[in-house]
Amino acid sequence: MESSSFGFFLLVFCVSLLIPARTQTLPHYHVALFIFGDSLFDVGNNNYLKNAIGLANFWPYGETFFKHPTGRFSDGRLISDFIAEYLKLPLIPPYLQPGIQFTDGVNFASGGAGALVETHQGNEGRVIDLKTQVLYLKNVKKHIKQQLGDAETRTLLSKAIYLISIGGNDYIAPPSEFESFPKEEFVGMVIGNLTSVIKDIYKVGGRKFAFVSMGAFDCSPNMRALKQDKGGCDEEVTALAKLHNKVLPDVLKELQGQLKEFKYINFDFYTTLKEELITLQNMEANVACCGAGPFRGTLSSCGISKDYEVCEDVSEYLFFDSVHPTEKAYKQLAKLIWSGGYNVSWPYNLKTLIEPGNHQYTNGVNFASGGAGALVETHQGMVIDLKTQLSSRKWRSSQTDIWSPENSLALFIFGDSLFDAGNNNYLKNASSRADVWPYGEKFCKYPTGRFSDGRLIPDFIAEWLKLPLLPPYLQPGNHDYVYGVNFTSAGAGALVETRQGTVIDLNTQLSYFKDVNEKLRQQLSDAETYNKLIFKALHLFSVGGNDYAVYVTSNSTVFHSFSKEEYVGIVIGNLTSVIKEIYKNGGRRFGFVNIGPYGCAPFTRALNTSGGCLEEVTALIKLHNRALSKVLKDLQEELKGFEYSVLDFYTSLSKRMNKPSQYGFKVGKVACCGSGPFRGILDCGVKHEYELCDDPTEYLFFDSARLTEKAYNQLARLFWSGSRDVTWPYNLKTLLKA
């Protein structure tokens, strides 16, 4: 690579001799854009490489916007092109293009490049690796100094945006010498190289950085084609991408503490690529517009392979070729990077980074994205139509929807799999996970960690509170808590001993809540605003079922040394202790879902040789529900301002199990997904022999213990606005008006 690099330096140096040796002054509002990375941002540098690993300088690349191939791996413009437009800059040229000026910035990105020098190194000139891209930046600085002088150059470089997308090639095609490395060690090397480059750019004069996290390329048409008959995502790449995206935010925080004036945004490309574009835009996500083979996913087949195909309408597709998105997709992603909410770009968006006087995003503005505000029309008008949602909540980029304690209400969620939105995805030894298909098939179209085909009770409650879908607490990059957060964990109980070490028990959830409280104190700055948020917040609970399931199924003497009454008293005592701790921290409004009739669920029926209910479980649950009602009444008398609502989940679910047709279901006692009697073995999506029903809307239970989205929607409505025979002393809507 050395002789080739020298040639490129020489080319730019010769071109620079044509520039008059005089200084200029740029307008005060001028912001340059320097772009680093791979094919996501490459606008044609690979056109000038002798042995480029990938090229896009032939038809049909460029067909939509440019009407001719430019070297961009898409039908039109890329994210960086739209960012340049928003900055009122011309299209930023590739560094290797002869005769360019540098005061608007330059694009160093190279298709196939990685953070590691070894990635796609092969023969000389295959890619421009990240370290070489930084060498080119240093050379550019010299030429800008000749043109503008020292002072203007420092100003230009400090105000500029440094846009970086790198790492995907390292993980998709790791160099052979690193294949035996543990995942954590390999990701550490990639992040380490990136960190080194960031520091080098900082030394050059860069202060403002924009990072695009690893995208969901584990599920690209190319990855699906490689899976052959399975056609699924590449789990190895998924694990690496998620690990990268988990480590990167921590590294950026550390750099902010180390490097004076270092500022950054981190765009959640992984989640957004799936949720925003697939769910909201309803794009074809599995098949490429251009390519050959299964899913049109054969790598580098678009425009080259004899049997390649091109779709009729590229705007209907997420991917243009087997790996790279379409112009339409890039445009939507660029908008979110530029002006999206805290749930997709943090600690603020790019516009706010450039205009430091605009702090509204750091105070908690959250645009309805990530599937939060656009709801698919299902169940005969039971949810909000997609077009209605998109018109009112989809892209809230008007910058007028500012959070304040007067017009917003936070939702903090505690409990088990009834409410878990994905925390167990991040536990190393989780007792159970729902991160496999067919979980999530109904609403998000992919598994999110929710134990259902779609949304859960808290998701609907959040919608009616005009909140976004609340993320799991352990989700990387989640720092915005003014709308609340979800602490729940599938398998968790009120007791620390229940499935200990494989779940987030209730006491640990409480400790997370206290951490969030402390962060909110710091974020909201004044005590009055913080107190209003916590005082008005709703604290939602579903817990206890696993404590009783373990009591019946476990051989542990820890559980069986107590009578049923004593054991229920311990469970209720732990729950009461947590409620009081939340009260001490300012919480006043609570919503409880009592324990459902799990003695008669598909999983318990499957355990019973007669196929009937397990009466021991039923007895414990009934004792619990009676004790819960009494304790809450006592707490209302004991704790000033304590208000609560209880959904009679037991009775409401029992009615639907016994008479499903009265509530719009056909099947009430058999799960949609699972195996064995009643499909009651908890192996949905895990073992090859599991069965899946044709239509989940006909079923009450989705898997052997959890419900379908349709069932959760009905029960959430009862909790929200039901009468006193199902929710008492009043429903949530009335509680929150009090």
TrEMBL record:
InterPro entries: GDSL, GLIP1-5/GLL25, Lipase_GDSL_AS, SGNH_hydro_sf, SGNH_plant_lipase-like. One of its GO terms (molecular function) is lipase activity. CDD domains: SGNH_plant_lipase_like. It holds the Pfam family Lipase_GDSL. PROSITE patterns: LIPASE_GDSL_SER. It comes from the Eukaryota. Keywords: Signal. One of its GO terms (biological process) is lipid metabolic process. Residues 1-25 form the signal peptide. Belongs to the 'GDSL' lipolytic enzyme family. This is Uncharacterized protein.
